[in-house]
Amino acid sequence: MRAVIAPCLLALGLAGPVAAQAPTPPPPRIPDLFDPDHYIPRPDLSAIRAVRFLTTDDFPPFHFALADGTLAGFDIDLARAICRDLKVACTIQARRFDSLAAEIKAGHDDAAIAAIANTPASRAGLDFTAPYYTTPARFAARLRSKLDAKGKVGAMTPDALAGRTVGVEAGTAHEAYLKAFFPKAVLRPYRSQADLRAALVGDEVELVFADGIGLAAWLNTAEGQGCCGFRGGPFTESRFFGNGVSIAVGKGNIALRQAFDYELAKLAHDGTYADLYLKYFPVSFY
């Protein structure tokens, strides 16, 4: 009977006040680097029988080793999804980062999925797919922070941050970016990311500006969740923060590069990429 009466009382306004619900936070933002309207034709995959990937095992959550030595991480799962969709055998082995490019150039392995920088120097000996994520810079502030007179904490613009104290790691691209585009902000350089985060927690600065991936990982910890959150951004200027992260293949291996580009776009469009991203980055760095 109570199950029947309760809805009736609510409809009549006789069941007492209903507690206000907290606003639902926006869903995590997924990197959106593949235009759904850009058609990529399926390449000829007949010559691809197997793919030998190289990576490292010391860069969580992208690629790391579990206690039993099994490789895991976002890049590992993405490589396996590519091979599964290509319907080819796939091996993924960990090597020292400084040996990866030489192994691929020598033809000992086919591809490296390990954040090798896509630069003019690296392109002299390697080819790269389209980027499947970038490394944006982000601002973070304390949760209780009100960054203007109206209490809004929206866009981080040069005018909005004029006179605001912003912590940044000294000698980094992030410091150079702030000096170039936020000249009216009051910069406070710190020696390390740990010092930078401690300054934010301790109210020494109003904001920090740093690598979004590192900040996202920290914001997912107990300290970060109870303290701070992202504000504005992401900032992805390639001159300061690179051209994004791609899969590297041997120079001139057009068939494999095209196959990877096709698969990366396909996995983005069918939702596989988003599922993997949310699995490893519950606090999005975008």
Written description of the protein model:
- Helices cover 34% and strands 20% of the residues.
- With 286 residues, it is of the alpha/beta class.
- It folds into two domains: 122 residues, D-Maltodextrin-Binding Protein, domain 2 (3-Layer(aba) Sandwich); 105 residues, D-Maltodextrin-Binding Protein, domain 2.
- The strands form three sheets. A five-stranded mixed β-sheet has the order 5-1-6-13-7, with helices on both faces. A five-stranded mixed β-sheet has the order 10-9-11-8-12, sandwiched between helices.
- A hairpin with a 3-residue loop joins strand 2 and strand 3.
- Helix 2 packs across helix 10 and helix 2 runs antiparallel to helix 11.
- The longest helix is centred in the C-terminal third of the chain and has 16 residues.
- The N terminus is likely disordered.
Largest sheet: 5 strands, mixed
SSE run: HEEEEHEHEHEEEHEHEHHEHEHH
Spatially, the strands of the biggest sheet line up as 5-1-6-13-7
Shape: elongated
Mean pLDDT: 87
Nearest-angstrom radius of gyration? 23 Å
Please describe the structure with a list of short key phrases separated by commas or semicolons.
2 domains; D-Maltodextrin-Binding Protein, domain 2; five-stranded mixed sheet; alpha/beta; 286 residues; single chain
